[in-house]
Every structure is written in structure tokens, then in C-alpha cells.
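Sequence only, no structure available. Ideas?
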Amino acid sequence: MGLIGIIIKEFKHIARDYRTLIVLFGLPLLQMILFGYAMDLEIKNINLKIDDYDKSSLSRELKSRFEGSKFFSISAGHGNLNELFQKRLLHAVVTIPDGFAEDLNSGRVPSIDVIIDGSDSNRAVIIRQYISGIIMGFSSSLRSGDYLPLNIIPSYAYNAELNSAFFFVPGLTALIIIMVSALLTSMTIAREKEQGTFDLIKLSPVHAYEVILGKVIPYLVLSILIGMFVIVCGVVLFGVPIRGSYGTLLFYLFIYCLTGLSFGMLISTIVSTQQSAMLIAMIATLLPTLFLSGFIFQLEAMPKLLQMISWLIPAKYFLVIIRGLMLKGNSQSELMLYISLLLLFSIIFLGISIRRFKAYLES
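Reply:
I predicted one. C-alpha cells follow.
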């Protein structure tokens, strides 16, 4: 067999290995879509409350500029300001003080107070830029009429100094826990198949749910300990606070670990080798968590299709939970929706795993 023969043989081998071709062409396409859309830093539909205490024509003109912006959705924002921030119903508040027009007409520089939710430091910086841009544009239009520039006084709720660690550490925690949990169980049944002990399980008088739960529970204890260790490291090394209930955080960590372990177990019932299980677990947890959970990139800036896909990412819900508990001090009732969805994921993953394993036992 000469050079030409070897080349032809390899092309035939490549053509037969359609799974590799799908990965080789599909992965770059997926990366292009995710990077292309996820890295759009433009944020829209920012819930903004404007408190106009001046009620003058100038204050109304400034307010109308915010209302006409494509970035802001003006909210009435009735109720306690802290609660509105905690429930994510409000992202920023602009306060136009009484005497705003009078100060401008008298040659004095009025101050405009701006409060921004700082739990997401990246988002807070972008919101501040949007608000400053509108106020500076309004100020520039006034300067032609001999008005002085306006003084903007920004403040940030939950993260006064816009410490980036407050933003990234909870996200890293969510990423590490889901990856480790999925990896722990993804290789369990595949390992039994590789070692030849799977037939012994088939011959033993056990139910499918007993095998699945028996393999999940030990790793559940281990993953919770790992999760607690990661959270403590974030607090000690980076100074990230825990403003919510420790008990609530531990309970939600338990559910999130169960979700990751259940997903890993589902992978283990599908693949035949530990190497494949590990690869699938890493890809299926790393990429979605990085791009579609809100960890790094703003979901609001993505196309509607990607936003809908993000609903299927468990890390998205835990990220809201852990940021809410660590930075905002959210109560359990305020986060009940998110933990319920994580619990639903766990039930679905475990249910499918048990059903698939039962089919193996009966085959």
C-alpha cells in the first residue's frame, strides 16, 4: 500500500467516523454562536426608578431622556427599595432633588443621586455608564444656555466598592460545584462496565433505584463538603460576605449538589467508558455555565433563543441563589422558585437514570 492508498484509507475512516465529524464541525459552530452573542455587552430592559422631587420642566426633560432610551425600562417601583433590589425588580434609582431647576437657573451645580444594584459589578459599571451618558448629554444641551454641568453622585447597593470578587466568586462556586458533582457520578456505572462487574449487579437481587441512590448518596456527602470548602475559601481569601442564612445556604447547596450528581448519573447510564463520561460531563457543565448562566455574560444582552436555552442550565438558578444569599441577604421565600426548579431538575435526571438502569438490568 503506497502513499495514495494510505490517504484514501484515512479519508474512508474519517467518513465512517461521523461522530468525530459532528464534533469537529459542530463544536466550532457552537463556540462561534456562544462567543458571538454572549460577548455582546449591551444591556437592555434595565429596570430604572426615577424619583423626581423637583417636578419642573427641566427635571421632566431629563426624565424623558431616560424614558426615550432603549436601555431602560422605567419602573414605578412602589415599596421598600431594599426589597425591590433583593427581588430583582429594580436595577437602579435616579433621584432628581427638589430645587434642581432653581439651582441650574441660579448658576449652582445640582447633584443627582444614583443608586445601582452592585451585586453584579460588571452590570453595575455598564448601568452607571448608561446613566452618566444620558445625564451628560442633558448637561451638554444645557451648557449652550450657560448652565453648569451636573454633579452625579453614584452609590452601589450590596457592593459599595464594586469589588469584582463579589461578582466572580459566587459564579466560580456555582461552576466548580456543578462540574465536580457531575464528574463524581458520571464515571460510576461506566466504571462497572469497564471492570466487568456490571454483570454481578445484574445478577444481584437489587432494584434499579437502590443501585442509583446507593451510588449517589456517598458522593452527595462528598460534594457538599467540597461545596462548603469552596464557599469558605471565597469568604476567607476574597472577603465575600454571607449576608443570608447559613442554614438556608447549606440546604440550597445540598439541592444543587444533588442536581449535579443526578446529571452525572444520567451521563453514566448513557456512555460505556469512563473517558467518554468524563469528557461529556466537563463539556456539558463547563460551557453552558460559562456562557448561559449569567456567570460572566449578561443574559439580557443575548438573543431570545439563547435566553430560552439558558432556562435549561441549573447553574443559572444557583447563581441567583448564591448571589442573593451571600450579597443581598435574600430570605428563603424570595428564592423558593429557583430552588424548586433545581429540585425539579434533580427529580427528572434521577428518574431518567433509574428508568435507563432498570432497562439494563432487565436486558
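The chain has two domains: 46-157, 164-362.
Hope that gets you unstuck.
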